[in-house]
Amino acid sequence: MSPSCLAFTRRHLLGAGLAALAAPAVRAAPTPELRLKPDRELMVPVEGGRLYVRVNGDLAGPRLPLVYLHGGPGSGHAGLLPLTALAEERAVILYDQLDSGRSDAPADPRNWHVSRFVDEIEAVRRALGIERWHLGGGSWGGTLALEYGARRPAALAGLIIQSPLVSTRSWIADAGVLRRRLPAQWRATLDACEGAAPPSPAQCAAADEAYLGRHVWRTPPDPRIAAYREAMPPHAGEAVYNGMWGPVEFRATGSLRDYDGEALLARLDGRRTLFVAGEYDEARPETVAAFARRVAGAQYRTIPGSAHVIFRDAPASYLPLIGDWCRRNERG
């Protein structure tokens, strides 16, 4: 299979061609007021380099801060900017993982293991002097949120695990189910694109887009966020994505090919844990809800009308849910 023909889902979150992939007939989802400019920014040393961190809102305010982890691996924080609309109530912290966005990009495969990415979270918390906070993450960020929550850190007040990769086995199974539901034309093209003699890149891209437009995002990007992302410096996001997952969504060939975090579900504090998926998510709602049922006391919510990138498809629905969850887990 030629990598130039297929480049699926989370790889597309790296930022190239977002506007081009959007269906022009669909209107962008209304985005609540967001803050493109941070109130504070800093570089935080971690194993392998330094992370770019931005803060909106008052870290010393009466409400606990919220940090939210981006997907990929390698996508950067730009798609999470709608969260800054919550900064009137509590500080919102976004950062780029190593090799992503504005963080250092050593492009060293020795850095590309799950535990090191989880360790980044505590490095950010210590650098900002935060005693307790809420943490969320989506897609690959949901994997890191699961891993962090399973450590039971004393600093964690509330946990949001959105559209997560919990195990590679379950992720690929979900992708297979959704692929089989595509119209026959696109299924046949995807099969051919993975074969020894693939069709043209344009045909493969069209089939790819048929999957993306159903299960990854269903609306065009906010133009302000698209412009912000385009202004990002060059980074190694695609390299880390290919190194950890691989060039094709339906088959993992990188270091995450045998990842299985399902045993971590039993370690979570369910009273503080919320699982979320979009109605049309490639992390299928049925699967994410089943993971939530394995965590005693955890809750699950589906975001109507959204696919995988919920902050793009339904920010006006998702942000109030996040705000409410944080308020409910503010003490104790």
Structure description:
- The chain is an alpha/beta fold and 332 residues long.
- 33% of the residues lie in helices and 14% in strands.
- Helix 2 crosses helix 3 and helix 5 (184-193) crosses helix 6.
- The N and C termini lie far apart (52 Å).
- Mean pLDDT is 91; it is low at 1-25.
CATH superfamily: Alpha/Beta hydrolase fold, catalytic domain
The radius of gyration over CA amounts to 19 Å
User: How many structural domains are formed by the residues?
Assistant: 1
Structural class comes to alpha/beta
Quote the average pLDDT. 91
At the third CATH level, what is the topology name?
Rossmann fold
In short:
With 332 residues, this protein is of the alpha/beta class.
Provide the descriptors you would attach to this structure in a database record.
alpha/beta; Rossmann fold; about 15% strand; about 325 residues; disordered N terminus
Task: List the SSEs and their pairings.
Layout: H1 18-21, E1 40-46, E2 49-56, E3 66-69, E4 92-95, H2 114-128, E5 133-138, H3 140-150, E6 156-162, H4 168-180, H5 184-193, H6 201-215, H7 223-230, H8 237-244, E7 273-278, H9 285-293, E8 299-303, H10 310-313, H11 315-328
Parallel strand pairs: 3-4, 3-5, 5-6, 6-7, 7-8
Antiparallel strand pairs: 1-2, 2-4
